[in-house]
Amino acid sequence: MKKLLLSLAIFAGITSVNAQTPVGTLVGNFTLTDLNGTSHILFDYLDAGKTVVIDVSATWCGPCWTYHNTNALNDFYNAKGPNGTDEAMVFFIEGDVQTSVECLSGNAGCVDPNNNNTSRGDWVTGENMPFINLTTTASFENSGLDIAYFPVMYVICPNRTVYKSGVAGSIGTLALLNSYIGGCPAPATDPSDVAVLVNKGATAHCEGAYTPKVQIQNNGTTVLTNATVSISQGGTVVSTGTYTGSLATYGVSTITCTAIPNFTGGSLNVTVTTAGDATAANNTLNIAIAPAATAVSQLVTIHITSDRYGTETTWKLKNAAGLVIQSGGPYADLATNTTLVQPVISAELNPSECYSFEIFDSYEDGMCCAYGNGGYEIKDAAGTVITSGGEFTDSELKLFKTGVLGINELDLVAMNVYPNPASTEVNVSFEAKNANYMVKLIDLQGRVISNQNLTNLNGTQVISISTENVAKGSYIVSITSNGMTSTKSVVIK
Question: What is the pTM of this model?
Answer without folding.
Answer: 0.67
